[in-house]
Amino acid sequence: MTASAHRLRGALVDSPTSLGAARRARRWELFAECFPHLETMDIIDLGGTVEAWRRAPVRPASVTVVNLFEPGDAGSDSWITPVAGDACDARAVLRDVGVTDQFDLVFSNSLLEHVGGHAKRAALAEEVARLAPRHWVQTPYRYFPIEPHWLFPFLQFLPLGPRARVAAAWPLAHSRPDSPAQAMSEVQWTELVGVAEMRAYFPGSRIIHERVLGLTKSIVAVADGH
Q1: Backbone CA torsion sign across 82, 150, 153, 88
Q2: pLDDT of residue 15
Protein backbone atom coordinates (compact mmCIF):
# COMPACT_ATOMS: atom_id res chain seq x y z
CA MET A 1 0.00 0.00 0.00
CA THR A 2 1.40 3.40 -0.96
CA ALA A 3 1.77 6.14 1.63
CA SER A 4 -1.10 8.16 0.13
CA ALA A 5 -3.37 5.10 0.00
CA HIS A 6 -2.44 4.28 3.60
CA ARG A 7 -3.38 7.81 4.70
CA LEU A 8 -6.66 7.69 2.79
CA ARG A 9 -7.62 4.30 4.19
CA GLY A 10 -6.69 5.53 7.66
CA ALA A 11 -8.92 8.58 7.28
CA LEU A 12 -11.79 6.43 6.04
CA VAL A 13 -11.70 3.37 8.30
CA ASP A 14 -8.52 2.54 10.20
CA SER A 15 -7.38 5.46 12.36
CA PRO A 16 -8.94 6.27 15.77
CA THR A 17 -10.33 9.50 14.29
CA SER A 18 -11.63 7.94 11.06
CA LEU A 19 -15.19 7.80 9.82
CA GLY A 20 -15.10 4.06 10.43
CA ALA A 21 -14.02 4.55 14.05
CA ALA A 22 -16.93 6.91 14.64
CA ARG A 23 -19.30 4.37 13.12
CA ARG A 24 -17.88 1.57 15.29
CA ALA A 25 -18.26 3.72 18.41
CA ARG A 26 -21.90 4.32 17.53
CA ARG A 27 -22.35 0.56 17.03
CA TRP A 28 -21.10 -0.09 20.57
CA GLU A 29 -23.55 2.52 21.85
CA LEU A 30 -26.39 0.81 20.01
CA PHE A 31 -25.29 -2.58 21.34
CA ALA A 32 -25.35 -1.25 24.90
CA GLU A 33 -28.77 0.28 24.31
CA CYS A 34 -30.14 -3.06 23.11
CA PHE A 35 -28.67 -4.93 26.09
CA PRO A 36 -28.57 -2.54 29.07
CA HIS A 37 -27.44 -5.20 31.58
CA LEU A 38 -24.26 -6.30 29.80
CA GLU A 39 -22.21 -6.14 33.00
CA THR A 40 -24.14 -9.15 34.33
CA MET A 41 -23.99 -11.23 31.14
CA ASP A 42 -21.83 -14.14 30.02
CA ILE A 43 -21.20 -13.54 26.32
CA ILE A 44 -19.84 -15.72 23.55
CA ASP A 45 -18.27 -13.85 20.65
CA LEU A 46 -18.22 -15.85 17.42
CA GLY A 47 -15.40 -14.70 15.17
CA GLY A 48 -14.04 -11.90 17.35
CA THR A 49 -10.75 -11.25 19.08
CA VAL A 50 -9.50 -10.70 22.61
CA GLU A 51 -8.03 -7.33 21.65
CA ALA A 52 -11.37 -6.03 20.38
CA TRP A 53 -12.91 -6.65 23.80
CA ARG A 54 -9.99 -5.06 25.59
CA ARG A 55 -10.63 -1.90 23.58
CA ALA A 56 -14.42 -2.08 23.82
CA PRO A 57 -16.26 0.61 25.82
CA VAL A 58 -18.43 -2.08 27.42
CA ARG A 59 -17.43 -4.73 29.95
CA PRO A 60 -19.61 -7.86 30.35
CA ALA A 61 -19.25 -10.31 33.22
CA SER A 62 -17.35 -12.67 30.91
CA VAL A 63 -16.60 -13.15 27.22
CA THR A 64 -15.65 -16.39 25.47
CA VAL A 65 -14.08 -15.60 22.09
CA VAL A 66 -14.23 -18.32 19.41
CA ASN A 67 -12.11 -17.67 16.33
CA LEU A 68 -10.97 -20.12 13.68
CA PHE A 69 -7.54 -18.54 13.38
CA GLU A 70 -6.26 -16.24 16.15
CA PRO A 71 -8.63 -15.27 18.97
CA GLY A 72 -5.67 -13.77 20.86
CA ASP A 73 -4.15 -14.21 24.29
CA ALA A 74 -6.22 -13.17 27.30
CA GLY A 75 -3.15 -12.70 29.47
CA SER A 76 -4.21 -11.39 32.88
CA ASP A 77 -7.77 -10.61 31.71
CA SER A 78 -9.51 -13.45 33.52
CA TRP A 79 -12.92 -12.31 32.25
CA ILE A 80 -11.93 -13.24 28.65
CA THR A 81 -11.56 -16.85 27.47
CA PRO A 82 -10.09 -17.32 23.97
CA VAL A 83 -10.90 -20.55 22.12
CA ALA A 84 -9.49 -21.47 18.70
CA GLY A 85 -12.03 -23.26 16.52
CA ASP A 86 -14.86 -23.12 13.99
CA ALA A 87 -17.67 -20.80 15.13
CA CYS A 88 -20.09 -22.74 12.92
CA ASP A 89 -19.55 -25.73 15.23
CA ALA A 90 -18.97 -23.75 18.40
CA ARG A 91 -20.66 -26.09 20.86
CA ALA A 92 -18.45 -29.02 19.85
CA VAL A 93 -15.36 -26.79 19.97
CA LEU A 94 -16.26 -25.63 23.48
CA ARG A 95 -16.93 -29.17 24.70
CA ASP A 96 -13.55 -30.28 23.37
CA VAL A 97 -11.75 -27.74 25.55
CA GLY A 98 -14.03 -28.11 28.57
CA VAL A 99 -15.73 -24.70 28.32
CA THR A 100 -19.44 -24.23 29.00
CA ASP A 101 -21.72 -23.89 26.00
CA GLN A 102 -24.48 -21.98 27.82
CA PHE A 103 -24.44 -18.18 27.59
CA ASP A 104 -26.67 -15.17 28.06
CA LEU A 105 -25.83 -13.57 24.71
CA VAL A 106 -24.20 -14.43 21.39
CA PHE A 107 -22.23 -11.58 19.80
CA SER A 108 -20.90 -11.74 16.25
CA ASN A 109 -19.45 -8.86 14.26
CA SER A 110 -18.61 -9.13 10.54
CA LEU A 111 -18.27 -12.92 10.54
CA LEU A 112 -21.37 -14.13 8.70
CA GLU A 113 -20.04 -13.02 5.30
CA HIS A 114 -16.81 -15.02 5.73
CA VAL A 115 -17.87 -18.50 6.87
CA GLY A 116 -18.12 -20.07 3.41
CA GLY A 117 -21.51 -20.11 1.70
CA HIS A 118 -25.15 -20.69 2.57
CA ALA A 119 -24.72 -24.04 4.34
CA LYS A 120 -22.11 -22.63 6.71
CA ARG A 121 -24.15 -19.48 7.34
CA ALA A 122 -27.14 -21.66 8.20
CA ALA A 123 -24.96 -23.71 10.56
CA LEU A 124 -23.72 -20.53 12.23
CA ALA A 125 -27.30 -19.32 12.68
CA GLU A 126 -28.21 -22.66 14.30
CA GLU A 127 -25.31 -22.30 16.72
CA VAL A 128 -26.41 -18.77 17.57
CA ALA A 129 -29.93 -19.97 18.35
CA ARG A 130 -28.71 -22.83 20.54
CA LEU A 131 -25.98 -21.06 22.49
CA ALA A 132 -28.06 -18.29 24.09
CA PRO A 133 -31.55 -16.76 24.20
CA ARG A 134 -30.21 -13.38 23.04
CA HIS A 135 -28.03 -12.40 20.11
CA TRP A 136 -26.44 -9.56 18.20
CA VAL A 137 -25.22 -10.64 14.73
CA GLN A 138 -23.89 -7.89 12.48
CA THR A 139 -22.76 -8.16 8.87
CA PRO A 140 -22.04 -5.63 6.08
CA TYR A 141 -25.00 -5.04 3.79
CA ARG A 142 -24.65 -6.49 0.30
CA TYR A 143 -26.28 -3.54 -1.47
CA PHE A 144 -24.25 -0.69 0.00
CA PRO A 145 -22.40 0.83 -2.97
CA ILE A 146 -18.88 0.54 -1.49
CA GLU A 147 -17.66 -2.98 -0.74
CA PRO A 148 -16.37 -2.62 2.85
CA HIS A 149 -13.36 -4.96 2.81
CA TRP A 150 -11.65 -3.46 -0.23
CA LEU A 151 -13.33 -0.02 -0.27
CA PHE A 152 -14.02 -0.48 -3.96
CA PRO A 153 -17.33 0.62 -5.55
CA PHE A 154 -19.72 -2.25 -6.36
CA LEU A 155 -16.96 -4.86 -6.12
CA GLN A 156 -19.41 -7.43 -4.75
CA PHE A 157 -21.35 -7.40 -8.03
CA LEU A 158 -18.41 -8.11 -10.34
CA PRO A 159 -17.76 -11.60 -11.73
CA LEU A 160 -15.30 -13.61 -9.66
CA GLY A 161 -12.30 -13.17 -11.97
CA PRO A 162 -12.44 -9.36 -12.15
CA ARG A 163 -13.15 -9.24 -8.42
CA ALA A 164 -9.97 -11.21 -7.70
CA ARG A 165 -7.94 -8.93 -9.99
CA VAL A 166 -9.20 -5.87 -8.11
CA ALA A 167 -8.42 -7.56 -4.78
CA ALA A 168 -4.86 -8.20 -5.96
CA ALA A 169 -4.17 -4.62 -7.04
CA TRP A 170 -6.53 -2.14 -5.37
CA PRO A 171 -4.44 0.16 -3.13
CA LEU A 172 -7.13 0.76 -0.49
CA ALA A 173 -7.42 -2.92 0.47
CA HIS A 174 -6.48 -3.72 4.06
CA SER A 175 -3.51 -5.79 2.87
CA ARG A 176 -2.09 -6.80 -0.49
CA PRO A 177 -2.40 -10.54 -1.30
CA ASP A 178 0.87 -12.37 -1.87
CA SER A 179 -0.33 -13.97 -5.08
CA PRO A 180 -3.27 -14.10 -7.54
CA ALA A 181 -4.31 -17.38 -5.89
CA GLN A 182 -4.52 -15.69 -2.50
CA ALA A 183 -6.54 -12.82 -3.98
CA MET A 184 -8.96 -15.35 -5.49
CA SER A 185 -9.26 -17.13 -2.15
CA GLU A 186 -9.99 -13.89 -0.32
CA VAL A 187 -12.83 -12.90 -2.62
CA GLN A 188 -14.24 -16.44 -2.56
CA TRP A 189 -14.33 -16.28 1.24
CA THR A 190 -16.23 -12.97 1.23
CA GLU A 191 -19.92 -13.17 0.38
CA LEU A 192 -22.13 -10.31 1.51
CA VAL A 193 -25.81 -10.89 2.29
CA GLY A 194 -29.02 -8.87 2.25
CA VAL A 195 -31.98 -8.38 4.54
CA ALA A 196 -34.05 -11.28 3.13
CA GLU A 197 -31.21 -13.70 3.89
CA MET A 198 -30.75 -12.30 7.40
CA ARG A 199 -34.46 -12.75 8.11
CA ALA A 200 -34.28 -16.33 6.86
CA TYR A 201 -31.23 -17.13 9.01
CA PHE A 202 -32.62 -15.39 12.10
CA PRO A 203 -36.43 -15.64 11.97
CA GLY A 204 -38.12 -13.63 14.69
CA SER A 205 -35.12 -11.36 15.19
CA ARG A 206 -35.31 -7.62 14.79
CA ILE A 207 -33.22 -6.34 11.88
CA ILE A 208 -31.45 -3.07 12.60
CA HIS A 209 -30.13 -0.98 9.71
CA GLU A 210 -26.89 0.92 10.30
CA ARG A 211 -26.91 3.80 7.82
CA VAL A 212 -24.37 6.11 6.21
CA LEU A 213 -25.74 9.14 4.36
CA GLY A 214 -29.16 7.53 4.52
CA LEU A 215 -28.01 4.27 2.92
CA THR A 216 -27.88 0.98 4.79
CA LYS A 217 -24.21 0.19 5.46
CA SER A 218 -24.66 -2.94 7.60
CA ILE A 219 -27.47 -4.96 9.12
CA VAL A 220 -27.81 -6.49 12.57
CA ALA A 221 -30.04 -9.35 13.68
CA VAL A 222 -31.02 -8.69 17.29
CA ALA A 223 -32.90 -10.92 19.72
CA ASP A 224 -33.25 -9.60 23.27
CA GLY A 225 -34.68 -12.78 24.78
CA HIS A 226 -38.23 -11.52 25.19
Answers
A1: negative
A2: 64
